[in-house]
Write a structure and sequence with these properties.
alpha/beta; Transcription Regulator spoIIAA; two-stranded parallel ribbon
């Protein structure tokens, strides 16, 4: 179960292995989740350890959520980024801290 400040991501582009994907194919769903998370949580964070696929669109969505949270005076954090998230950040040229990943996870 997620902590009170984490938003579950059920149904967001599940793969056949039941792990979410964060790609252009699921961008609209993720965008809605991220907007709601930033707007409603005092400390927005996501546990993304089960994400098996992420592309540059996914990284851009995370970066946008990170920036939106900053503009609201909040700290957006990604807890337990999956290898797919870290690889997509590297491919897109985003330092992990610009999407809310702390240095200890990168």
């Amino acid at each position: 179960m997620n902590s009170p400040h984490e938003t579950p991501t059920p149904g967001l582009g599940r793969t056949t292995d039941e792990h979410p994907i964060l790609t252009i194919a699921t961008a609209a769903s993720w965008r809605n989740v991220l907007i709601t998370l930033v707007e409603t949580s005092p400390q927005p964070s996501l546990d993304l350890r089960s994400v098996q696929a992420c592309d540059t669109i996914g990284v851009q969505l995370l970066h946008s959520a990170f920036r939106a949270a900053l503009q609201c005076g909040k700290r957006f954090r990604i807890l337990h980024p999956s290898p797919a998230i870290l690889a997509a950040c590297a491919t897109a040229g985003f330092p992990p801290e610009q999407v809310g990943i702390e240095a200890s996870h990168s």
